[in-house]
Amino acid sequence: MATKPFVKQFDIHWYELLDSTNTELSDLLKKDQIEEGFCIAAKSQTKGKGQGKNSWESEAGKNLCFSFLLRPDFLPPENQFFLNQVVALATRDFCSSIAQNPHINIKWPNDIYVDNKKLGGILIENRILGNTFESCIVGIGININQKIFTSDAPNPISIFHLTQKEARLKPLLIQYGKIFFLWYDLLKKREFSAIESAYKKNLLGINQQRKFRAGNENFSATIIGTDPFGRLILKDESQNLRLFGFKEVTFLFD
Length: 254
Hints:
The chain is α+β, with helices and mostly antiparallel strands. A hairpin with a 2-residue loop joins β6 and β7. The longest helix has 20 residues.
C-alpha cells in the first residue's frame, strides 16, 4: 500500500458566518472525499460548540474559530488519547508563542488556561470503524482580540488581555497549522513517551493540591497525571488514588 504524503499545513477555507465550523465540516465530510488538513474557519458562529451541551461565546471577527480534518488511520483506537494530547499541546504552544507567555497550561483534558482563566477550548469528534480510526474533526476556539465577554462564562481571557495588542487572524491560523503538524508528526512517529511527558509537564495544577467536585462531594486532591485512557489521576488527602473520566469531576476555582 502506498504511503500517504504527510500534510504539513492546512487547506484553509474562510467563511463570514456559520452555525458551527464543526457542524459544517461534518456535513461536508458526509458529501465529499475531503483530505486530511482541510480546515474551515469562520469570522462568526451562531451556534459555536463547546464540550457536551456547552456553547462557545465569540464576538464576530475577533477570535479564531476553526475546525480541521484528520485521518489518523495509523493510530490504534485504544491510543486515541495521544491525539487529544497532541491537539492540546499544539494549541498550548501556539497560544504561548503569540502571547509570549510561558505560563499557559492545559486544563485537563484539553482546555487552554492562563492561571485560572480560560483562553481556549477544544472539541474533538472521532469516527472509529471497528479497529480503524476513520476520521477526526478537531474544533478549536481561541480568544484572540475580544476585550469584553458578555456570557455567564466565569473566567474568560484573551490574547489581547495578555499583550494589549490586536492580531490578524488569518496569519495566525497559518501559524497554528505549522505548529500543529510538528506535534502530529511526532504522533505519526509513535513518540508516545515524549508526547505524554510534555502533556504532563504542561498540565494545569500538576503536583499541586486543588479543589474539585465529583457528584455531591467537594474535596481537595493533588493532580498526579493521566492514565492511558485519558482519565485524571488524583491523590486525595487520605493518600488514596482516584480516577475520573471526562465530566466525572469538576475543577473548583476560587
